[in-house]
Fold this protein.
Amino acid sequence: MTLILKITDEGSQYSDQLHDLLGEFGLDPAVDDELDDLSLLPAYVLAGASIRTEAHSHGTHMHVIAINVEIAEELEAAFYDALGQVLEAGDEDDEDDD
């Protein structure tokens, strides 16, 4: 599996290709207030990514350390194509609402 995004309390780390694709849709991960990393998790899943949570617990209390977005290496090219289509469909829905 290839890690394409890691979300932690300290910020998010994007793969170059994911960063560039989001930029094509006007989403700039470098600007904290512009992009809510968690809000795009469903789009990543629809495009074929897997979400893996790193967490530990203290009794009944759980603490999430990181959320990892990963894609199987053999599906990586198809993932980025599908993600582009999902993001484009989202843009069309936003335009229809206006």
Q: What stands out?
A: Strands lie at 2-8, 11-14, 50-58, 61-71.
